[in-house]
Design goal:
Radius of gyration: 24 Å
Strand content: under 5%
Mean pLDDT: 86
Largest sheet: none
Structural class: mainly alpha
Oligomer: single chain
Number of strands: 0
Length: 123
């Protein structure tokens, strides 16, 4: 009886250890995939905070590009465009230009993954 109980506890320990290792590996792989994905195209439904977080820029960069005060603004870009008398495409273009200028003014992040090589397409 004592021997069977010990085997059962050992088996349970091994099973839990394997499950823990499995979830750890899956979590690491998921994190790497998230970090390596390309930037999501900016759309009108996004707000300044979302764009700033997604593109890893301070919100002040976007506020300055749109000529807005540096206060938190939860309005989507499409609403900002309407309120400022511009088109959504103009606002998105201004935001993209500001992001590119900000990224160009800073040295690249050494921890950032390298972009995948571009393979030529064959017809």
């Amino acid at each position: 009886m004592f021997n069977n109980r010990r085997r059962l506890i050992s088996l349970a320990f091994v099973l839990v250890s394997l499950l823990t290792i499995n979830f750890a590996i899956r979590g690491i792989q998921h994190g790497r995939r998230l970090r390596a994905r390309p930037d999501e195209p900016i759309q009108g439904w996004m707000n300044i905070g979302y764009v700033a977080h997604s593109y890893h820029v301070p919100p002040q960069v976007i506020h300055e590009a749109l000529g807005l005060p540096p206060q938190p603004d939860r309005r989507p870009l499409a609403r900002i465009a309407v309120d400022t008398g511009r088109t959504t495409d103009e606002v998105i273009a201004n935001v993209m230009t500001a992001i590119q200028q900000f990224r160009g003014a800073r040295p690249p992040d050494p921890d950032a993954p390298a972009p995948p090589p571009v393979e030529p397409r064959t017809p």
